[in-house]
Design a protein that fits this description.
The chain is α+β, with helices and mostly antiparallel strands and 412 residues long. The chain has one domain. The N terminus and C terminus are likely disordered.
C-alpha cells in the first residue's frame, strides 16, 4: 500500500504544473461526443427547475462567477464533471461504489460545533451525494487542488498534492476513520480554522447587512427555521442569502435573531437530486433520484452537527463565525498545506467508511491501483475542466432556462 507520490516522469508533460493549457489545445482535452458546455448548462438548469424554484438573478450571478477562473468553474459545474467522468476515466468509473460526496473540492470543508460545544472540522455539505465510485471523490478533490495550484492558491507540487490526499485516504481506511475534533489534539488545524478573517464582528455585520429582498419564504421553511432556533419564542427576521457557487440559483434563506444579547442564525437551502442523476439520464441510464443527505450524515465516521439536517428537501443548518465553510483564499499564508491536504484525504475516507459493505472491495481495489494513478487522472480531469472553462469564457453564457411548470419547492 503506497501513496501516490511516485508520479509519472516529468518528460510526459512539457508544461510546468502551474501553467494553463494553451488555448489551441484546449478543445483536445474535452471528450468527444459530449455536448457543448452552454447546451449542457441550459439542459441541466431546466432539469433543476423541475425540482426547485429557480432564482434567476442568482443563477445569472453563478454564470458570471463561472467565467472568473477554472477553479470557480469546477465548483459551479458538478453536472459537467458527471458528463466527463465516465468518458475520461472509464476504468476508475468501474471502481467499487460508495455513498460519496460527489461535489468534493478543497473548499467544501468547514467547521461546526458538536452537541458538547467542541469544534469539529470536515466536509461542509453534501448537496450532490449519491452512490458513485470511491475514486471519483479522490480524483475530484485532487483535480480541484491542481486547479487552485494553477491559479496560485496552493504552492505544493502536483505530486505532493496527490500524494498527501491519497496518503490521508489510505491512513483513514487503515484506522477505520476518526472525526477531526479540534480540542486537545490537532492544534495546527484549529489554528487554521480559527483565524483573524473569521472574526465574529465581521461575520455578523455581513449577515445583518443582507438586503431585505421581497422573496416569498415558504411556510414550511419559516417554520423549520423557527423550530431550530435555541428558543421557539425568538423573534426572527428571514432574509434571502446569496452564497456558495454550485448551489447558486436555488432558494437559500437565513433567519436572524438575538438570544441572550447576541446574534444567532439558521439557514435553509433547497436541495434537489444529485446532478449525477441528470447526467445518467443524458446517457440513457437511470439512477434513483432520492436525496441521500441524511443517509451520509448518519453513516459516515463523523462527530455530528446537531442542527444540520435535511427536512422536506431543505437543508437546515446553524450559521456562526465558527460554523461555516473555510475559503482557501482566506487562510493565513503561513499554513500547514501538506498536512491540510492529507487531512482532506482522511476525511474523504471518513465519509466512505459509512458504506460499510463496500469498504472491503474498496481496500482491495485501492491496493491494486498502480503508482501515480491519482496524479494521472487528476491532471486529465483538471485539463478537461480548464478547457471547458475556456469555451465557457469565450462565448456568451446561456440565458436563464425557461420557467418550469408550477411545481413548487422540492416537488418531483
Amino acid at each position: 500500500m503506497t501513496d501516490d507520490a511516485a508520479a509519472r516522469p516529468q518528460t510526459t508533460r512539457t508544461r510546468s504544473p502551474g501553467a494553463a493549457a494553451p488555448a489551441e489545445t484546449a478543445a483536445a482535452a474535452l471528450p468527444a461526443g459530449v455536448p457543448p458546455v452552454q447546451t449542457a448548462t441550459i439542459d441541466y438548469e431546466t432539469w433543476l427547475g423541475r425540482h426547485v424554484d429557480i432564482i434567476a438573478a442568482d443563477l445569472q450571478h453563478k454564470h458570471r462567477l463561472m467565467g472568473g477562473g477554472a477553479f470557480a468553474f469546477l465548483r459551479a459545474t458538478f453536472y459537467r464533471w458527471m458528463q466527463f467522468w465516465p468518458e475520461m476515466c472509464p476504468d476508475l468509473d468501474r471502481a467499487p461504489r460508495v455513498l460519496a460526496v460527489g461535489d468534493i473540492h478543497i473548499e467544501n470543508f468547514g467547521t461546526w460545533r458538536d452537541i458538547e460545544g467542541r469544534l469539529v472540522w470536515g466536509v461542509n455539505d453534501f448537496d450532490e451525494t449519491c452512490e458513485l465510485p470511491y475514486t471519483l471523490d479522490l480524483v475530484r478533490l485532487a483535480a480541484s487542488a491542481l486547479l487552485a495550484q494553477r491559479e496560485g492558491a496552493i504552492g505544493s507540487s502536483a505530486e505532493d498534492v496527490c500524494g498527501m490526499i491519497l496518503g490521508g485516504y489510505h491512513r483513514g481506511l487503515e484506522t477505520d476513520g476518526r472525526p477531526f475534533v479540534l480540542e486537545e489534539k490537532r492544534g495546527w488545524l484549529r489554528t487554521l480554522a480559527i483565524n483573524e478573517l473569521r472574526d465574529p464582528v465581521r461575520f455578523w455585520d455581513k449577515l445583518n447587512g443582507l438586503p431585505d429582498k421581497p422573496l416569498a419564504v415558504p411556510h414550511k421553511v419559516r417554520r423549520a427555521l423557527r423550530r431550530n432556533m435555541p428558543d421557539d419564542g425568538l423573534r426572527i427576521t428571514v432574509r434571502h442569502r446569496v452564497a456558495g457557487v454550485g448551489s447558486l440559483g436555488r432558494p437559500r434563506f437565513v433567519a436572524l435573531a438575538r438570544w441572550h444579547g447576541a446574534h444567532v442564525a439558521r439557514e435553509a437551502k433547497a436541495v434537489a437530486p444529485s446532478a449525477a442523476v441528470w447526467a445518467a439520464g443524458t446517457r440513457g441510464e437511470r439512477m434513483k433520484d432520492d436525496i441521500r443527505y441524511n443517509d451520509i450524515l448518519d453513516n459516515a465516521v463523523r462527530c455530528p452537527d446537531p442542527i444540520l439536517r435535511l427536512k422536506d428537501d431543505w437543508v437546515i443548518r446553524r450559521l456562526a463565525p465558527d460554523c461555516s465553510k473555510i475559503d482557501i483564499g482566506a487562510l493565513p499564508k503561513k499554513r500547514e498545506e501538506r498536512k491540510l491536504l492529507r487531512a482532506m484525504g482522511c476525511e474523504v475516507a471518513n465519509i466512505h467508511l459509512g458504506s460499510r459493505r463496500a469498504i472491503k472491495q474498496v481496500r482491495r481495489d485501492l491496493d491494486e491501483r498502480p503508482a501515480g494513478w491519482l496524479t494521472e487522472a487528476a491532471h486529465r480531469m483538471a485539463d478537461a475542466v480548464q478547457a471547458d472553462w475556456k469555451v465557457w469564457r469565450g462565448e456568451a453564457g446561456p440565458q436563464s432556462p425557461p420557467e418550469p411548470e408550477n411545481t413548487g419547492h422540492g416537488t418531483r
